[in-house]
Amino acid sequence: MTDTATKKITNRGFCEHCHTIVPLRHQAREGKMYLVKDCPNCGTVETMVSSDAERYMEKRRLCEYEGEAQATCHLNCVDCNHGFTPKLVHLDVTNRCNMNCPICAANVQAMGFDFNPPMEYFEKIFKELAKYDPKPRVQFFGGEPTVRDDFIEIVRLARKYRLPARVATNGIRLADEQYCKELLDTRVHLLFAFDGRHPDIYKKMRKSPRALELKLKALDNVKNYNVRPGSGEFSSRRITILSAVGLGINDKHMDDFFQFCHERREQISVVAIIPLQVTPGPEQVAPQSTSIEDVERICADAIPGVEFIPTAMLQMFETIQETFDVRITFGGTHPNCETVTILIADEERYRPVSDYLKTSFGELVESVIAWDRRMGEKLKGSWIARLFGKRGRQLVVGWGLVRLAPRYIRIGKFIGPNPIRNLARMVWRKVTTGKQWKKLIRRYSGVRGVMRLIILPYEDEGWLETARLMTCPVAFVYEHPKTRKVELMPFCSWLVYKNDILRATAEHYSQPSKAAQEKVEVG
Fold this sequence. Notes:
The chain is an alpha/beta fold. 37% of the residues lie in helices and 19% in strands. The chain is built from 18 helices and 18 strands.
């Protein structure tokens, strides 16, 4: 929204005390960044959103983001439907769980009611999502989705509508070999919660000393049963690890955490870290909130030289995306939302991608963005692009990328001590066998694997600002409590509105209220 008198875009958020929607502004003080809100009821209210104000603002510069906000809204998320086609939608399937983590606000005890809608609810939602082009990925959320006895049927239903399916799971039920096999047979992508392999982490963060044992068993099952349906052959599909990281909780164990990921590099393709926040209620797990910039420093301590960039920068590769139909899940996010880096595995450990570059990772991305813009102009006058259409554009851009690579990549270190011989072997094996490039690279180069490391924002009411919602490519999908239509809501505002929506949905489908959560004790 723009204030017509001043033509200034007004950023907005919630007062944490009275929940009134109020204007807000950023303020740097003593090296930290705060969201400052002037509430007519409570006075000045502020939330610390970053421990490093300089780094916070640097991300905006990298993304060419000017001003307090470039777009904003009224935060009427329930009736807005966001008005966009999401790349990834989250769907709550239950608030039941087989754990009782004190850091969680998404279970029966925390929410005060039982949410476990029937199959018709999911069919209605999938039918609507299937109308989108392209179809979004659907990520199942909870609670713990796998505690539903019909969860595998829900996944199959999503697949029936040709919706790519993912599930965020604590992994406990996958310690059961038969269940793990049946779930993996659906081809669902796993986002597996794992906070490290030190038992004390689970005693404090999850209140479950036995959780680590069950999670390790589940990861072994996933490795053993991740097979191609009907073939009996092991699949090359890998999983995403979800980890909560908090100052004073598991920050000193991250070196071992990444070593664990390296040992399982054939199994893990992505690590997504969520900064731990001060938890509500009497059980204060985290002594202080952890910001994205804190996690970046924690990762840099564990892997010296690692650099992160805002995922918003990836959307700036406009020519590359259009030419090769690249779909970037987090492209278009706000500069102060997700950040990402690439880790390269050698025989010993993960190393920062900059070890394989002639420049820093950030400088590489900035240079490629500038090249991408020049290439976009070049395509307009290219006779190859005009004559051969899309194939011609791909040829021009692809050849340009090949020529660009030696300027920034240390080819000798990447390919190995005999780069010409190793490269020739890779090309020959590709032509004669058709093997995947990633397998050939692992065999004929010094690279043993590549892993993306993403830091996700944890949004609660105090951190929410409308400027970050307007371009969010990730949403929650739900049934409107009054109109019963399938609607979308930006991911980060869902936490504010979800209890009322899910309670109304549970009542609509006539679920009995439960005084106690049905759960399986794990420790």
